[in-house]
Amino acid sequence: MNVADVIRRSRRLKLFIFIGIPMIYLLIFFFIPFLIALLYSLGMFKQVVYQYHFVPEPSLEYYVGLSKYPGIFKAIQRSFYYATLTTIGTLLISYPLAYYIGVKLEERYRDLAVLVVFTPFWINFLLRVYAMRFILHEAGMVNTILRLLGIITEPIRFLGTDVAVIVVMIYSYLIFMVLPLYGVLEKLNVELLEAAYTLGATPFRAFLKITLPLSIPGILAGSLLVFIPAVGEFVIPELVGGPNTTTLGTIIYSFFLRVRGVTGWGIGSAAGLIYIAMILVASYVYMRFVGGEVRLG
Amino acid sequence: MKLFDKILKAYTYTVLALIYLPIVILIIFSFNESRSKVVFTGFTLENYYSLIGNYRVWDSFYNSIWTGAVVTVVSVVLAILMAYGVSRYEFSGKTLIDSIMLIPIIIPEIVEALTLLVFLVIIGIELSPYTVIIGHVAFDISFAYVVVKARMAGYDPQFEEAARTLGADEIRAFTKVTLPILAPGIAAAALIAFLESYDDFIKTFFTRPPGFMTLPVYIWNMASRRGFPLDLNALATFVVAISLIFAYIRNRIERRVY
Amino acid sequence: MSEGPDERIEVGEGRRNFLKIAVAGAAALAVGGAVGYYAREGEVTALKKRVEELAAQVGVEVGPVLEENLNIYNWTWYANLALVEQWAEENNIHLVYDFFEDLDTAISTITTGAAQYDLTVISDNEAQELWEGGYLREIDLDKIPNFKYVPEEFKGLPYDPDNTYSIIYSYGTTGIGYNADFVPEGITAWADLFEVDNPDSVIRRHAGKVTMMRDSTETLAAAAIYLGYDIDTTNESELQRIADLLIAQKPYLYGYVQTEDYMNELPVGQRYYISHAWNGDIAGIVYASDEYEVYIETYYDNIKYVVPEEGAVVWYDNFVIPKNAQNIEAAHAYINWFLDPVVSAIHTITIKYPYPAGLKYVPVEIKNDPMIFTPSELADRLYLGRALTPEERAIREQYWNMVMTA
Amino acid sequence: MSYAVELINISKYFGDVRAVDNVSLKVRKNEFFSLLGPSGCGKTTTLRIIAGLEEPDKGIVKLDGKDVTYVPTHKRNIGMVFQTLALFPHMNVYENIAFGLRMRRVPESEIRRRVREMLEIVRLTGLEHRRIHQLSGGQRQRVALARALIVQPAVLLLDEPLGALDLKIRQRMMVELKRVQREVGTTFIYVTHDQTEAMVMSDRIAVMKDGVIQQVGAPYEIYMRPRNRFVANFIGEAINMLEGTYIEPGVVETSIGNVRVEGGAEYVGRRVAVAIRPEKILIGEEVSGDVDNVFSGRILMTIFRGAFVEYRVDVAGFEFIVFKPHVGGLARIYQAGDVVKVGWIKEGGILLVD
């Protein structure tokens, strides 16, 4: 047996190449730093000028310290509220779009269409958010149009409200829903639908029974890509939200950068780890929920 | 059905128009004479002249593009390996890996950035553009993985077996058959990975060497105190134009194999 | 709102002409032309020529041999970059002039020790925390002869009594900015923003048109000054009172905003027109200042800034050299160059932040603008923050957090 | 003479499930060989082992006399047509067919020539630039066949390739496959659960059940002389299976009485079955004196089946199925309730022990 055969025949070697290499990368550059956060949260890591020391005395002090922040629960609620609405919003807007491009549009135009949808996202995130701010501004386009149409006399206040936060978040995260949905819908076999029609299914039922279940992987992927970063979002609420826009992201950020020191990093890491645990649970429940629907269908 | 298709088409164009609306605003104001970003006072090309002379913008734009490209290639390749391995092989801990792969997306960026920085100090790696790339790849793998795996979910392994019975070894079966079939998913993953890197501020800010600016770092610095200079609007216009031209040309010249 | 130039200033041709500025009573320094790269080339040459002339007049000496590199880490919009680049070129230094926009991120960068900067600019109490923590290198004042141009009141400030680690860069106050078109009655005190029980107070009459800073230190300090507490109080009952006050104020606010927001919004005034603000930023609106261009032109003379009667936070930014700096000589040379009165003056004229060493050569319009140079008679009602431990900050963040999520 | 394919004591487990159990098989060159069995019987696994897509846990695979047990698929010189066809969706007809030649680095001019030839053989000329989803089911079948055949494999493996087609096209494709096989002279191994397909096309058939080969033989052999009850039941449209005991040489005692059989003296005293194909049973006037087994029965049902008539005849509680061509007019067809004689010569009965 030559080397190629050894590789071919060794399942372990293949597993190593496929799973091992990416995992080693993540282990070194993600999970070890992640471990550092864990150590900080347990008070097991200290910094003296540019030297870092391991202190083998775990304590839950920083986790307990978190409970002194009465606002944290509200911040979590707010984070999940924004993220949920953003996910639903992006899904509702993206699905027909991705469906049109991936299924209805002539094949040779699909790539072009995807690039055209993607193009606005070449603009820096911050510039996009500012542009949205001009549009939602009291003197901005939306209010101007509404006034010209005679619908309103006084400008409506969007900026500084949750409406603005959610609109801007949906706008910013839209592409993360469109792309996975497109990736999945594009390979949808139209014959399956045609088969369903021949079997007497109405287009709506065919969609419900065939298209939708088959696009579940895309919906799942898109939801994860939108929901998870959206829970951590704090820049958009700060830029377009009102007085009550503190999210969990804001709080973690302020622990690390404002409180600073071992204390700040400790509490910040503790908050970060609790946050990760919460999202893992939420994602798991969500995946089970969506997966369950597949079985029902 | 026909009516439904028409509604769908109209809807798509409406959404596209809305997506482009803020961009149009940016473009309009790139020609604004006044320093104000709210009221349009008069037409000028001044912002474009000032953009041409602003070497910091071009430097950071260039840095964003090339680091983003490297990050995208590396993270998508690693994500494909991973998604392929998880979809193709049965092994214990598979579901665990699936959850683990979510953590880099979940972790608050500030935690990730600072702990990576500490780690780099501890092992004595000096900051360079490559540390920025390393940091970006560490979360981009996950983004790409989620997307590639969604596409792979419906991939029939018989395609690959067919290729092997036709004389392709495993590598060629993978590159000639599996990859092209997964291409739309991979392209989506690549775009997402690129976008995540291209738009990243916090992680870049902490893992970059002195003076190394990407576009987000430059823009955040410029914008967050004074509001961004209007030559950035000019840059936005330029980028959109290039991107659309590129998309159009690509569509014209590319003779798709499939 | 008016956009016309202020009458006090001599105007050249066109709306955006650059002005002739009297420097040290000598010949006028003319800089200008069209904007853009070519214009800036000309500007740099003109500046260079002027600096050489003026340097000869005041007798700047050539220092020791410098390193080839210098990594500077400074706020954005905080120096005339054309001038800085010219200095680097003249001294054959490969200069990395890097920006930060948020002191918190800058301090994290410096304290983790990964990034190596040779010179940075840090505020008063943070500078003290850094040198106490061992993150700063001592500055050799012998290598900075121009230190003598720093006015006495900016030497030996409480956070570094012997200027061992820090040298003044600029300073300012945190007060209230507003658009006088909408608030013709004017604002004078914190009480105007905090007396929510008085239906005739400014905040009640302009409910929803007021913003506070999205910055815990500053906003807690504002309330503390109004209540007569130490601005850095960590006394929990005092903090509770502060939080109560801020929570009571909250319904009447537009929100807590960042600098960029109020700088763009105040002149428009559509969303809000009264903002808790930094003096230099308000000056930035009024003069629409830039990082390269030297001109004095008033864009918005309806924008006002006030240091409230009860007092205000004063802050000092300082040159400091991080412990892990590599190019020490160059860093000292840069500080020395910056403290040259003419150089400081040009930076001041460009940025509209006061660089104390240049006071002598700054045109009178700027020198007399209280928005830029805080009048010395205010000194007894300005409060300087003190160094805090992370634990103290954690307590304060708790109450801030309480306010933000109330 | 070496065989095209030789399996020696092949076993394959999936976890605890024994998919293939000690299978040995010899497929001759240029033969159309079918693996026939119900779903889950291990026939597909056997095929995949031949292809090298699965590795056997035990046993040896030989292709053309050479041990290839551990030779990777792409070096085995086989062709395979998959159940799903697995035509590459990102390629057109031409590219699909040319794929194997490309993998073998055949020069482009030769590829062009051979693809053209192959398109002729499978009668697809003119469609080379079609995309896969623009083809009909039958056309896809031909593309898959062409793609597998163009590399001139030593053996072509077909995994229920006709499963998805409707009846007419399937019938046409069967003839087509047989024709192509003759034309190219390649060994075909064909996996199916459909006995008609196997019967129509195969030179020999192996019947499988539960991972074990039950019987190998030409279609008529399997039909006429099934080795056990399973094969007898599985092959053919129907069979009359009389269970009983072998009481003395040539006689089996069954529920309807003693039945004369041919041979099998060694089974005396054992439980056996006598299986009689419906068309072997004589009825009414056909039953003459020299018929070995004669019983009297009553017609329960008469079913007109087109080419023949099917009678259900009750004989002492056992329901016989009888197929009769209708040579005469309608008058000659028995109707329900008629009392008739049924019988068969003893060579028409098949003695089954297993």
Summarize the model shown.
The complex is a heterotetramer of chains A (297), B (258), C (406) and D (354). Chain A has helices at residues 3-9, 11-41, 61-66, 72-104, 107-118, 125-136, 141-148, 162-185, 190-198, 203-214, 216-232, 235-240, 248-259, 261-296; strands spanning 45-48, 51-54.
Instruction: Describe the strand arrangement of the main beta sheet of chain A, using strand numbers.
Output: 1-2
Structural class of chain C: alpha/beta
Q: Which CATH class of chain A applies here?
A: Mainly Alpha
- Named CATH topology of the largest domain in chain C: D-Maltodextrin-Binding Protein, domain 2
Q: How many helical elements of chain C?
A: 14
Q: What's the overall average pLDDT of chain A, rounded? A: 86
What is the first-to-last residue Cα distance of chain C?
36 Å
Task: Count up the domains of chain C.
Answer: 2
Counted beta strands of chain C: 11
Number of strands of chain A: 2
Largest interface: A-B, 99 and 101 residues
Structural class of chain A: mainly alpha
Global outline of chain C = globular
Q: In what range is the share of β-strand residues of chain A?
A: under 5%
CATH architecture of the largest domain in chain C: 3-Layer(aba) Sandwich
For the CA atoms, what is the radius of gyration of chain A?
Answer: 24 Å
Mean pLDDT of chain C: 84
Give me the CATH superfamily of chain A.
Answer: MetI-like
**Topology pattern of chain C, helix = H, strand = E:** HEHEHEHEEHHEHHEHEHEEHHHEH
Give a quick account of the main beta sheet of chain C: strands, pairing sense, barrel closure.
Answer: 11 strands, mixed
Structure description:
The complex is a heterotetramer of chains A (297), B (258), C (406) and D (354). Chain A is an all-alpha fold. Chain A has helices at residues 3-9, 11-41, 61-66, 72-104, 107-118, 125-136, 141-148, 162-185, 190-198, 203-214, 216-232, 235-240, 248-259, 261-296, and strands at 45-48, 51-54. Chain A has one domain (65-296): MetI-like fold (Orthogonal Bundle). Chain A has a two-stranded antiparallel ribbon. In chain A, α11 (216-232) runs antiparallel to α14 (261-296) and α13 runs antiparallel to α14. Chain B has a single domain (48-257), classed as Orthogonal Bundle (MetI-like fold), CATH 1.10.3720.10. The longest helix of chain B has 34 residues, at 55-88. Chain B is globular, with a radius of gyration of 22 Å. The mean pLDDT of chain B is 86. Chain C has 406 residues and is of the alpha/beta class. Chain C has two domains: 8-170 and 316-367, Periplasmic binding protein-like II (D-Maltodextrin-Binding Protein, domain 2, 3-Layer(aba) Sandwich), CATH 3.40.190.10; 172-314 and 375-405, Periplasmic binding protein-like II (D-Maltodextrin-Binding Protein, domain 2). Helices cover 35% and strands 17% of the residues of chain C. Chain C contains 14 helices and eleven strands. Helices cover 24% and strands 34% of the residues of chain D. In chain D, α2 (93-103) crosses α3 and α2 runs parallel beside α4 (137-149). The interface between A and B is large, with 99 and 101 residues.
